[in-house]
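Obj.: predict assembly geometry.
Materials: sequence records (below).
Method: joint structure prediction, all chains together.
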Amino acid sequence: MLSVDGLFFGYKNTTILKNLEIELHQGEILSIVGPNGTGKTTLLKCITGIIKPNKGTVMIDGRDTSRMSRMAHAKCVGYVPQSSPSKFPITVFDAVLMGRRPYITWKPSEKDLETVADILKSMDLEDIALRDFDQLSGGQKQKVLLARAVAQDTDYLLLDEPTSNLDLKHQMEVLEMISSMVKTNSVAAMLAMHDLNLASRFSDRMVMLNAGEIFCSGEPQQVMTIENIRSVYGVEATISQANGHPYILPTGPAGHSGIKKCFSS
Amino acid sequence: MQDICEQYKDFSTRKLFFIVLLVVVLFGVVLIALSQGASSVGFFESFKALFRQKTGLAHAIVWELRLPRIVMAILVGCGLALAGSVFQAILRNPLASPYTLGIASSSGFGAVVAIIFSGSYYSQYLIAGSAFFFALLASLLILGIAKFKSATPETMILAGIAIMFLFSSLSSLLQYMGTVEEVHEIVFWFFGSLSKVGWKEIGVASVMILLPVPVMLRWSWDFNLLAAGDESAKALGVNVTRIRMCGVVFASLITAAAICFTGVIGFIGLVAPHIARMVIGGDHWFLLPASALIGGILVLAADTLGRTCWAPQIIPLGIVTSFIGVPFFFYLLMKKKREYW
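Observations (raw structure tokens):
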């Protein structure tokens, strides 16, 4: 279990995360949702150790991450960034092989290469294995970054907006991949998500952040309510159900007189 | 379909083959350089002098004039190219070179100070020592600023540019005050030249250039990860700040060692890593040795050309490296279809 306890983060004058308490269990997908600038990415970075929280702890299976070495930490938590800058040419195989870094000292071993080859095969990236990462489409890049995190072989995966630049089909593919990985390998995934409908469709639990604080959390049914969306996003919406998942249809900004009339009473 | 693992290994073998090929080419250029020169010691004669004869004019020419020059050219080329690759990796900037962080202009200033103020103590070692000292001073300044603010590539590059301007105007000021002879000497230093090197200088330079090589190779994976972004690198367990700081120190040390005896030799440190990258890609495990070899080949070829094509005049090395480096680089840039940064 990964648990975030009393986490605070901020720069000199601004506090970004306030007293967060989050638990992530094996075999579970947890989505972090909330408006822009609410601290979703910052939270993920605190958990992966990219930035240090000012207060509070991140515990992984009972171990305090602040006492772990970087490499030990990297063997526990994998991170998929929103995008990866690529100034220099690198093949897809090498890009995925980077995920083995915590296990490599001088050169990758035979086992590292085999692991990467297996992952590429299972994720259908075989054909582009020796292509240049930079020449791939957005969807392919996202899959490669995901493959890198899988190669890292961790029990916990953190993904920052894994679907943000993807078309519908790739959104589905990437999320299906994450979902099947979580179920079959009994790992746990935490996703920072913008798309509430995708989040609701794919996650077991959701945490809704507002201005760095947890506004509400629970199953998608509990979090995706008209009131929550109005107060956190400032948007009026209707909520419907499809296949047991709630989904929202935004109708307009909250406070707009015409729309408000429709929904009041 | 062939197994991906096998494909990747083939790919690695091809890179290794390219490195072997570079060693062969370097060896070929050494043979040519050894047999060319102002005196009439020719191809076969020079080899006889190299291995069999222990005395005589040919022996002296080969062992005291040509060979030290060749060895130093290779060392300087390797050093500059290696430092260039490291700077490009840690600053995540394809325009970075050993001189980006103001290291050339500060070591130039060191040389200028030594030339102007040494007076009767004038010696080549004083100039080299001063150039070396100031090169390291520049990198320490950068590190100080990075430590105080943040060790991002942007901070470092901006600080480096500021330092470059500071030292080049200081150099100009001293040149303005110097005598004609001193200014001549300074100009000559900025051209870069291998005329004054002997075995002693080679000894000093080789220790400083070759010692950090294993460390750089050990870090090749971390350099690869830095290219993927600081965040990804950190998430994969790399201590980004430390690797960047140490990288700057080592690469500056190599640069300082390479240029303190020879003066400023431009372009190699920028272009050799790119040539290597165009051919074998961005994996530093292969890129570092390949670009070092390319640097060695380029400097040696340039120096050989500079001292033979217009003999007995010797064209300063720094000028020739640009003359042969630029067209070659343009050629590769045009030929390569894809954008690669």
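Conclusions so far: Chain B is about 75% helix and 0% strand.
To do: check interface contacts against the pulldown list.
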